[in-house]
Amino acid sequence: MSSDFGLIGLAVMGQNLILNVADHGYTVSCFNRTTSKVDHFLANEAKGKSIVGCHSIQEFVASIKRPRKIMMLVKAGSPVDALIAELLPFLEKGDIIIDGGNSHFPDTDRRYAELTGKGILYVGSGVSGGEEGARYGPSLMPGGSKEAWPEIKEIFQAISAKADGEPCCDWVGPAGAGHYVKMVHNGIEYGDMQLICEAYDLMKRVAGMTPKEISDVLADWNNGVLDSFLIEITRDILKYDDVDGKPLVEKILDSAGQKGTGKWTAMNALDLGMPVTLIGEAVFSRCLSAIKSERTRASKILSGPAVSTIPASERAAFVEDLKQALYASKIISYAQGFMLIRNAGKEYGWEFNMPSIALMWRGGCIIRSVFLGEITKAYRKTPDLENLLFDKFFLDAVTTAQSGWRKTVALATLNGIPTPAFSTALSFYDGYRSARLPANLLQAQRDYFGAHTFRVLPEFASANLPEGKDIHINWTGTGGNISASTYNA
């Protein structure tokens, strides 16, 4: 029996995706380097399903109908290259390799170019939703060889999550575009998680609330504009008790890990000169948390204000302000993320379908939320929307939330409680709405010490200060008159 689809990698995500594909009426071949995992899977979870187990790469490839559709779910980096090298001797022109791992998009670009030259169609697909998503409907973000899309579209859209009846899967773009969008998704995920953590910290320290009381607040928030997977799971975490009846969350070491996708997003934002400040702060917050022993020493040396717990009578107003701060900051984070995607499209020559990207994230993935439905509407209404903040829905939302947002950040500062994500979101908002920023002084400083030049405002153009020209001034009378090269970062 020839299979419709093949998948390599039988960790939990791989097994669940195979079961998902089989449940939708397709026959699936599976392979794992440790072949005992294949046998165990066939004897247990896959028993009685249209799943074919293979014990070698050659047997695996031979079991799949042409053009072969082969998905890899292995660790990013060199293992992907090694597996591709093993597959190639058995593949034919027009066969399709799909990398469903968290590969860095430049690696996908490279593999796409190499395999295109060999006649193999290559797809780098973001897969989000965790174990449950893989089993019952993930968000899928495929990109790469456009000729592969008609071949994989039916399967991918069948197994993906659905939002308002539409599949959370569409073609993203060429080369590494799919993995790029997944990278930005993960960066936004970093930001969302950090914002929720800051809200939890403020409720705990300023309002003196217990984890269960905070859980109740999140349950309420999850019935409105903040309805999302991350709010939902945080609600559940905060009401989970250890065997001694005490909240488990309070026993967990406050040192966060990371796998690198958030860092990649922040680094790419710097490369493109895009002010994706909230994701950057979320990454740095994890880095700060990781130096636990150093922070412990600093806590005994460095002074700051004592936290003033608010009276119970003010708690409701505080929680409402905090809700508005979280909502507004979340809007900023997504606005920054879509700014980055929009500019990456220009930089790399990728035509991104912005409404489709928002829809792909609407269901199945970690950042899924009601909120993303409004982003989909905004881009469907104005496909070339410059910034989400220019859409009436988000403009009105930020305007309404602004008072509570500012009060929350001010209260945190006065109490010495770090809110890097809330604060940077507000700073970005105030910077973005400023027609003039103090970068005029910064350019003068650069010209003073390094002859890096500046340009003059049109209204002040003159014979000695011509508009649109790079100008160098001898600020002291003793410097040179030759300007250095300048560049835009």
From TrEMBL:
<dbReference type="InterPro" id="IPR013328">
    <property type="entry name" value="6PGD_dom2"/>
</dbReference>
<keyword id="KW-0560">Oxidoreductase</keyword>
<comment type="function">
    <text>Catalyzes the oxidative decarboxylation of 6-phosphogluconate to ribulose 5-phosphate and CO(2), with concomitant reduction of NADP to NADPH.</text>
</comment>
<feature type="binding site">
    <location>
        <begin position="32"/>
        <end position="34"/>
    </location>
    <ligand>
        <name>NADP(+)</name>
    </ligand>
</feature>
<feature type="binding site" description="in other chain">
    <location>
        <position position="259"/>
    </location>
    <ligand>
        <name>substrate</name>
    </ligand>
</feature>
<feature type="binding site" description="in other chain">
    <location>
        <begin position="128"/>
        <end position="130"/>
    </location>
    <ligand>
        <name>substrate</name>
    </ligand>
</feature>
<dbReference type="GO" id="GO:0009051">
    <property type="term" value="P:pentose-phosphate shunt, oxidative branch"/>
</dbReference>
<dbReference type="InterPro" id="IPR008927">
    <property type="entry name" value="6-PGluconate_DH-like_C_sf"/>
</dbReference>
<dbReference type="GO" id="GO:0019521">
    <property type="term" value="P:D-gluconate metabolic process"/>
</dbReference>
<dbReference type="Pfam" id="PF03446">
    <property type="entry name" value="NAD_binding_2"/>
</dbReference>
<feature type="binding site" description="in other chain">
    <location>
        <begin position="185"/>
        <end position="186"/>
    </location>
    <ligand>
        <name>substrate</name>
    </ligand>
</feature>
<feature type="binding site" description="in other chain">
    <location>
        <position position="102"/>
    </location>
    <ligand>
        <name>substrate</name>
    </ligand>
</feature>
<dbReference type="Pfam" id="PF00393">
    <property type="entry name" value="6PGD"/>
</dbReference>
<dbReference type="InterPro" id="IPR006115">
    <property type="entry name" value="6PGDH_NADP-bd"/>
</dbReference>
<dbReference type="GO" id="GO:0004616">
    <property type="term" value="F:phosphogluconate dehydrogenase (decarboxylating) activity"/>
</dbReference>
<dbReference type="InterPro" id="IPR006183">
    <property type="entry name" value="Pgluconate_DH"/>
</dbReference>
<dbReference type="InterPro" id="IPR006114">
    <property type="entry name" value="6PGDH_C"/>
</dbReference>
<protein>
    <recommendedName>
        <fullName>6-phosphogluconate dehydrogenase, decarboxylating</fullName>
        <ecNumber>1.1.1.44</ecNumber>
    </recommendedName>
</protein>
<feature type="active site" description="Proton acceptor">
    <location>
        <position position="182"/>
    </location>
</feature>
<feature type="binding site">
    <location>
        <position position="446"/>
    </location>
    <ligand>
        <name>substrate</name>
    </ligand>
</feature>
<feature type="binding site">
    <location>
        <position position="452"/>
    </location>
    <ligand>
        <name>substrate</name>
    </ligand>
</feature>
<comment type="pathway">
    <text>Carbohydrate degradation; pentose phosphate pathway; D-ribulose 5-phosphate from D-glucose 6-phosphate (oxidative stage): step 3/3.</text>
</comment>
<comment type="similarity">
    <text>Belongs to the 6-phosphogluconate dehydrogenase family.</text>
</comment>
<keyword id="KW-0311">Gluconate utilization</keyword>
<dbReference type="InterPro" id="IPR006184">
    <property type="entry name" value="6PGdom_BS"/>
</dbReference>
<feature type="binding site">
    <location>
        <begin position="9"/>
        <end position="14"/>
    </location>
    <ligand>
        <name>NADP(+)</name>
    </ligand>
</feature>
<keyword id="KW-0521">NADP</keyword>
<feature type="binding site">
    <location>
        <begin position="74"/>
        <end position="76"/>
    </location>
    <ligand>
        <name>NADP(+)</name>
    </ligand>
</feature>
<dbReference type="GO" id="GO:0050661">
    <property type="term" value="F:NADP binding"/>
</dbReference>
<feature type="active site" description="Proton donor">
    <location>
        <position position="189"/>
    </location>
</feature>
<feature type="domain" description="6-phosphogluconate dehydrogenase C-terminal">
    <location>
        <begin position="178"/>
        <end position="476"/>
    </location>
</feature>
<feature type="binding site">
    <location>
        <position position="102"/>
    </location>
    <ligand>
        <name>NADP(+)</name>
    </ligand>
</feature>
<feature type="binding site" description="in other chain">
    <location>
        <position position="286"/>
    </location>
    <ligand>
        <name>substrate</name>
    </ligand>
</feature>
<keyword id="KW-0570">Pentose shunt</keyword>
<feature type="binding site" description="in other chain">
    <location>
        <position position="190"/>
    </location>
    <ligand>
        <name>substrate</name>
    </ligand>
</feature>
<dbReference type="InterPro" id="IPR006113">
    <property type="entry name" value="6PGDH_Gnd/GntZ"/>
</dbReference>
<comment type="subunit">
    <text>Homodimer.</text>
</comment>
<dbReference type="InterPro" id="IPR036291">
    <property type="entry name" value="NAD(P)-bd_dom_sf"/>
</dbReference>
